[in-house]
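Structure first, sequence second, as always.
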């Protein structure tokens, strides 16, 4: 059965795009992403020539420039994976909650993962990458349930405004809890504070290999949930009337989003606003059909984090700004614009 998109609210245009336009935008996004990957490998504290870049991609490490490229390869791969995970997670969370402000950071999910990791390191001595990832995913899942329950209290249920406020309050509280857990531990305080900024510097293929299965499973679940999200966009009653198991569809999509957000936070720290900015921009390109929106959000999220990493290397040479700082500078004004434009309506 083919489902029609939800009816627009008064004064709100529903973006529809023919398939050929979507395919054209797909080619554009892939081309831009390829250019960003090349820039990520070539740009940094040391400029890399094209000859050294191609030689390093072939496995050569004969000089300093080629060795620099070899170190940037896992960093670039991690930026792509983390960006794709956060962009896809944000799109799914917005679809599940029908909340234009939904995002792993704004809803407190990434901060819940951060608190779980901080507690695990400080109190239980976890240091292995796999333990980090499992701890972060459990923390993200518990926080997501908590925020949704708090946002559902009172009349009207889980409205976008109540969810955003519950997420913001939870994030603020968890930041204080993290400080309370970490500050008495001088041996880990510096490393945890650095990780909390959010970045992909110092990435290695060992951490990528550890998190890749979790991100792959989360991505598969989210993409399989695309049709269910299209049904949820019609409203719970109409979706149920069309045969959709609303609770199952929402729980399945949420599971995928939590896996992606928790895994990305474990390896890169809490990077904010990627999951907010990317889905809104992708809706302008491909419309509201989640079968197109979700893959585009993954590609655009990968591009945003990779671009932010490149910008962070350039603006503070020879030092670097972490990705989390750049995305906050981009995302905070966008968040204000969304609030003013959407008036915190449901999607």
């Amino acid at each position: 059965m083919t489902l029609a998109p939800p009816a627009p609210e008064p004064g709100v245009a529903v973006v529809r795009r023919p398939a050929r336009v979507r395919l054209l935008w797909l080619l554009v996004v892939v081309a831009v992403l390829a250019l960003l990957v090349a820039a990520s490998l070539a740009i940094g504290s040391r400029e890399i020539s094209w000859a050294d870049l191609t030689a390093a991609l072939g496995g050569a490490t004969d000089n300093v420039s080629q060795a620099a490229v070899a170190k940037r390869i896992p960093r670039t791969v991690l930026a792509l994976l983390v960006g794709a995970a956060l962009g896809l997670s944000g799109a799914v969370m917005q679809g599940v909650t029908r909340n234009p402000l939904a995002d792993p950071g704004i809803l407190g999910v990434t901060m819940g993962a951060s608190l779980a990791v901080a507690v695990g390191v400080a109190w239980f001595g976890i240091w292995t990458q796999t333990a980090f990832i499992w701890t972060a995913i459990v923390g993200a899942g518990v926080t997501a349930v908590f925020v949704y329950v708090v946002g559902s209290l009172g009349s009207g249920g889980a409205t976008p405004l109540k969810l955003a406020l519950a997420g913001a309050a939870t994030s603020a509280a968890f930041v204080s809890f993290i400080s309370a857990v970490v500050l008495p531990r001088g041996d880990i305080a510096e490393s945890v504070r650095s990780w909390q900024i959010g970045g992909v510097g110092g990435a290695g293929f060992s951490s990528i290999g550890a998190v890749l299965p979790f991100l792959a499973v989360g991505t598969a679940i989210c993409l399989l949930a695309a049709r269910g999200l299209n049904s949820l966009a019609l409203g719970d009653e109409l979706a149920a009337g069309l045969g959709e198991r609303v609770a199952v569809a929402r729980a399945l999509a949420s599971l995928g989003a939590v896996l992606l957000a928790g895994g990305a936070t474990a390896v890169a720290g809490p990077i904010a606003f990627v999951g907010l900015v990317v889905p809104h921009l992708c809706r302008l390109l491909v419309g509201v059909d989640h079968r197109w929106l979700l893959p585009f959000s993954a590609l655009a999220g990968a591009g945003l984090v990779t671009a932010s990493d490149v910008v962070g290397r350039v603006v503070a040479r020879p030092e670097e700004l972490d990705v989390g700082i750049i995305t906050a500078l981009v995302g905070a004004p966008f968040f204000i614009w969304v609030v003013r434009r959407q008036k915190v309506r449901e999607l």
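Margin note: The chain has 14 helices and no strands.
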